[in-house]
């Protein structure tokens, strides 16, 4: 059985009885952070920084006067995942990696208002730059962090030196869209939002389960979905602690949901990261990027074997339905797998035609985390990009 099919088998169990699991998952009314004191590598400084928007843990590397590079982590993770990449920055650059709202050391009383899409995260990033007296910075976003970068590009292009998108979420959000224009499958965006949260994985996080006894533990998710087997991160234990530091609750993870008469039976609520990723709240990102001025150079880098973000993503309801894993599938004409890669390329092509520029790099034999799985290749391309954009 292939790596991809193993992941689909896992999701088939996770999504059976999805509505009953939503009732269990959303019973927590207050966000709870299970953040632990995660050791940092030599050369990384962890600091608590409070801006006018939020207080959070921020990891720093390099000299304070260095050219700033802001790193934004993905879902179910934290700034911890960026440490090796920060330490590998060329001389003269400064790494800055915050725990995003809803994750890690961020204030648990500060929730993601999903109705703003990535707006809360984007505004938090700019508030951090303001607090540090940084007028412009290079910005790097992985997965969910890439979704945040789209919003920063649209809202604050004048604050950027360059953009690096690492296996980014589609600019149209996660799930529920059927073509490269981001056309919604349903008007209420059924099949997106907090209903996509894996209840069994959330329960394992709540129990601090670090085992491989189930395909729904953080360790199993890391090894089978996030990276391409047989790769195992050297700092896997730190990454597991990071995954378990996600904020839990009805306004955090998984977030709230509303019932729908359309297929899957759920539509996005208004709180938490998973709802914020719904295309319901993404807005017309393509048009906003076309209008953005100035247009900074973009590097889009991804793994060829990424199953987390792809045209047939393992956790996409459309993919699962098309393969018969979720019953009553309405058909690919109604709810096809989201063409995430094609959507990103189409939007970047529009950005290019409007005066911007981008480079797409695909690393062979690589999953969802190229900066971890192939650091030498990643850093070579990434460093060339930020050096060129700094001149």
What does this structure look like?
With 391 residues, the chain is α/β, with parallel strands linked by helices. The chain has a single domain (3-390), classed as Rossmann fold (3-Layer(aba) Sandwich), CATH 3.40.50.1820. The chain is 32% helix and 16% strand. It has 14 helices and 13 strands. An 8-stranded mixed β-sheet has the order 2-3-5-4-6-7-12-13, with helices on both faces. A hairpin with a 6-residue loop joins strand 10 (257-259) and strand 11. The longest helix has 16 residues, at 375-390. It is globular, with a radius of gyration of 19 Å. Residues 12-29 have low confidence and may be disordered.
Radius of gyration: 19 Å
> Major sheet: size, sense and barrel closure?
8 strands, mixed
Tell me roughly what share of residues is in helical segments: 25-40%
Could you name the ranges where pLDDT drops below 50 across 5 or more consecutive residues? 12-29
Number of helices: 14
What average pLDDT do the residues reach? 92
- N-to-C SSE series? HHEEEEHEHEHEHHHEEEEHHEHHEHH
Number of DSSP E strands? 13
Q: Based on helices, strands and strand pairing, what is the structural class?
A: alpha/beta
């Amino acid at each position: 059985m292939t790596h991809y099919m193993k992941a689909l088998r896992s999701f088939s169990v996770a999504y059976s009885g999805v509505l009953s699991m939503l009732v269990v998952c959303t019973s927590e009314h207050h966000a709870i952070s299970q953040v632990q004191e995660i050791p940092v590598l030599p050369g990384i400084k962890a600091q608590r920084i409070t801006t006018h928007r939020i207080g959070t843990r921020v990891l720093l590397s390099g000299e304070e006067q260095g050219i700033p590079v802001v790193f934004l982590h993905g879902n179910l993770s934290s700034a911890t995942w960026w440490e090796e990449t920060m330490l590998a920055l060329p001389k003269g650059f400064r790494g800055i990696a915050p725990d995003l709202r809803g994750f890690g050391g961020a204030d648990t009383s500060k929730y993601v208002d999903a109705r703003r899409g990535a707006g809360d995260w984007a505004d938090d990033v700019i508030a951090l730059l303001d607090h540090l007296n940084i007028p412009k910075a290079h910005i790097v976003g992985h997965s969910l962090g890439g979704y945040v970068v789209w919003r920063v590009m649209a809202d604050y292009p004048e604050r950027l030196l360059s953009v690096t998108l690492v296996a980014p979420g589609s600019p149209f959000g996660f799930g529920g869209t059927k073509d490269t224009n981001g056309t919604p499958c349903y008007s209420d965006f059924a099949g997106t939002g907090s209903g996509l949260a894996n209840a069994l994985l959330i329960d394992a996080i709540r129990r601090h389960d670090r085992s491989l006894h189930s395909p729904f533990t953080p360790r199993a998710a890391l090894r089978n979905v996030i990276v391409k087997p047989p790769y195992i991160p050297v700092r896997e234990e730190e990454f597991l602690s990071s995954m378990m530091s996600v904020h839990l609750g009805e306004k955090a993870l998984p977030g709230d949901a509303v019932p729908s008469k359309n297929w899957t039976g759920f539509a996005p609520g208004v709180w938490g990261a998973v709802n914020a990723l719904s295309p319901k709240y993404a807005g017309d990102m393509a048009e906003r990027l076309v209008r953005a001025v100035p247009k900074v150079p973009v590097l889009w880098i991804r793994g060829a074997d990424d199953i987390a973000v792809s045209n047939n993503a393992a956790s996409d309801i459309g993919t699962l339905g098309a393969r018969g894993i979720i019953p009553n599938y309405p058909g690919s004409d109604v709810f096809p797998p989201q063409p995430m890669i094609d959507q990103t390329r189409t939007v970047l092509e529009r950005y290019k035609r409007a005066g911007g520029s981008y480079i797409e790099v695909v690393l062979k034999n690589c999953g969802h985390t190229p900066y971890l799985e192939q650091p030498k290749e990643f850093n070579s391309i990434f460093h060339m990009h930020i050096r060129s954009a700094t001149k």
